[in-house]
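Recap from last week: sequence in, structure out.
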Amino acid sequence: MHKYILITLSITCITMMSQKVKAQAKITHIAVFVSNLEQSTAFYKDVMDFEEIEEPFKDGLHAWFDIGNNLQLHVIEDKWQPITINKNNHICFSIPDMDVFISKLNDKNVAFENWVGEKGKINVRPDGIKQVYLRDPDGYWIEINNEYN
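Predicted structure tokens:
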């Protein structure tokens, strides 16, 4: 009897493991509306170290970047319209070495702050993760943390 139960459980497990699991929707890119494509492209290449990748439009209004984990950042220039920008609405990127990144920000004179707005300060979350916040050329908030795994 025990053999029968063990064989039945084994067959059930193998059958369940071989069935294709339907994937949830997944994120593929983040689009950012900008006022000056050239300036924003330089920021995301030079400060954030993102690799620019080919984009299909070829109209001088788009720049696409590989941001890791099969994700892309699409930077799109259009006639600028005033928007509300709030630190609660931000993009977050994790990096392997906060000290190296902070040094790079300082070398490039890119301002950063902690969550409460203290310039040049690093925020430490209750779980020990370090965070800083900076703005791209259009004022969008970007969180940088060292939760890199």
